[in-house]
Amino acid sequence: MSQRYEGWEPVIGLEVHCQLRTESKLFSSAPNHFGAEPNHHTTEVDLGMPGVLPVINGHAVELALRVALALGCKVHPVSIFARKHYFYPDLPKGYQISQYEEPYSTEGAVPVELDGEEFLVPLTRIHMEEDAGKLVHDSAITGGAASYVDLNRAGVPLIEIVSEPAMHTPEVAAAYLRSLHSIVRYVGASDADMEKGNFRCDANVSVRHAGTETLGTRTELKNLNSFRFVEKAIAYEIERHIDVIEGGGEIVQETRLWDDKTGQSRSMRGKENAHDYRYFPEPDLIPLRLGEDLIVSQRDKLPALPHERRKCYREEWGLAVQDATTLAEDRGIAEYFEATVVESELPKLAANWVKQTVLRTLTDTGSSIEELKATPRHLAALLKLVDGGQLTVANGRDVFAEMVETGEDAATIMQAKGLESVSDTGELETMAREVLDANADQLEKFRAGEEKIFNWFVGQIMKKTRGKANPAAVQQVLKKLLAI
Fold this sequence. Notes:
The protein is of the alpha+beta class. It has helices spanning 58-70, 170-186, 227-246, 292-300, 306-315, 321-328, 331-344, 347-365, 376-387, 393-406, 410-417, 425-438, 440-447, 453-464, 471-482; strands at 8-19, 74-75, 78-79, 81-85, 95-99, 105-106, 109-114, 117-130, 134-137, 147-150, 157-163, 199-209, 219-224, 254-259, 264-270, 280-281, 288-289. The chain has three domains: 3-296, no CATH class; 303-417, no CATH class; 425-482, Arc Repressor Mutant, subunit A, CATH 1.10.10.410. It contains 15 helices and 17 strands. Strands 1, 2, 6, 7, 8, 11, 12, 13, 14 and 15 form a ten-stranded mixed β-sheet that branches. The chain has a three-stranded antiparallel β-sheet with strand order 5-4-16, with no helix packed on it. Strands 3-17 form a two-stranded antiparallel ribbon. Helix 12 (425-438) packs across helix 14 (453-464), helix 12 packs across helix 15 and helix 14 (453-464) crosses helix 15. The mean pLDDT is 90.
């Protein structure tokens, strides 16, 4: 804990709103696609027209259930939807359909890794609800201050994942959010694109005197949509709470917005409590019943999760903590890496190539791992050539780039380009003698103690072979000739 917090204990809880990856909305047939013209993805249900009735989206229920199972939640066979009343321009009905007293899942935990330590952050609940619309504030259209309502997002299926107030540093909160972000993507429940707003976070922050149990008055930081913002905003809010209290003031329970340009939070409105929303059971929806067959079918669809893969990579394949974390973060990358290891039986070499060459290629080309023409089988064959000394690392990268373009196998490309390594010790010894004979001055300096000239000799031999020599073999021949 920071010295700045000495004598104080911050208490942090996160509420994460995660849009589910469905074709249609939670209670209507309107498309659930980002980027359409404003107010084009709506139906009478989304607009709150009189006489219409909501109908639950079965696929949204499956995805919500999958997340709860992945996080070890207690799934309730019967849950109730409720009306949450508040009045805002982007909420046409004047209420939001959510779950309150009887959510579909409770308890569970998010596995978190930070600074090489792994631990669990407990959850309170996960419940389903519909998203609200969006207000667009744009003065450019009319030349003056103006706000517009876009209801394309109204009714999009959400799950709200509520943690216990069990985190005590901004760093832990950010690590928790990264882990949760990875898991919802792993199980296929959400794209979790923070820039598009389909994975966003509200942070509840309070402080109390160290060693006490009573929670302090909390403030809510609303709609944080990046890991960096979450960490910075919570850190600022902790400091603000401490400054206010130590200055003799009192913290007011309220909702605040984070302004990254100023590096400060500002008051948005007084924080509502549950009674302000006047919850009551949604009369137009029957209770949601989750049968055992449905639960089993969604549990069967769960892949190995990031924390399980990290453990395997470290304990079974001997990878460093950071390498294991990087490779396990994205499901597509993890599965590509694992398939390469199965084909090559070279886990550490595969880790280096996937982490560096493959990920760099994806960044440079803007493609996904699924679109890559160089499959795990292609990469495994390339790694065997490199490991066996038939290809240098540098030439191996050239071969990989060609595989990405053409989908050809490594051996074919190597032979077509004449890139096979020169490993014949007799041939290398002849070249090494030529280099030493042609550079008597450098040889004399080396024998006088300038050891760095050894690497210069290696470079000269590599030039003579146009980079095709096996560097290890070159060094071995040189050491023999120089008697070192």
